[in-house]
Amino acid sequence: MSELRFIKTILRTFFVVAILVLYLGAKAGMKDSVYAYILATDINHPEIVLKQAILETGWFTSKLLMKRNNLFAFRSTKKYMRFETWQKSVEYYKRWQNDNYTNPKENYYTFLRRKKYARNPDYVKTLKRISLKRNEAAPQKSEVLP
Predict the structure, then answer these.
(1) What is the residue range of 15's domain?
(2) Is 72 helix (H, G, I), strand (E, B) or coil?
(3) DSSP H or E stretch at residue 75
(4) Average pLDDT per run of 10 along the chain, which is 146 residues long?
(5) 49 touches 93 (CB < 8 A)
(6) What is the CATH number of the domain that holds 38?
(7) What is the DSSP string of 11-35?
(8) Whole-model pTM?
(9) Residues facing residue 80 across a β-bridge
């Protein structure tokens, strides 16, 4: 009986580890895909924009925003916008940036603060703390904006 219990424990542990590896791999894959598309669309300050997508979606786990393919929490009136694909939300960001970021010499963090991109006064500070290293853990819940 104890041998059977041991085997069940090993299998359970293996299952949990396998799920965790798949989950972390999917997150890394999404991050890399989004970054590649941000670069392909020639968005200014791509690393900061990627950090915005990470922050807004909680490392691409927000059911609300991911279901709407809205990586940047864009709103129309008070409701979150819905995009056909997440790539369309990146393209929308590019158009938004082209329309609003008219002085390329302006610090992008200063621009986001000036444009009041987010309601949270610590938005820029939180963006700056996000690391884009491949093996970096997701930010703690307290670091992700609601």
Answers:
(1) 2-143
(2) coil
(3) strand 75-76
(4) 66 49 55 94 96 95 95 93 97 98 95 94 95 57 42
(5) yes
(6) 1.10.530.10
(7) HHHHHHHHHHHHHHHHHHHHHHHHH
(8) 0.73
(9) 75
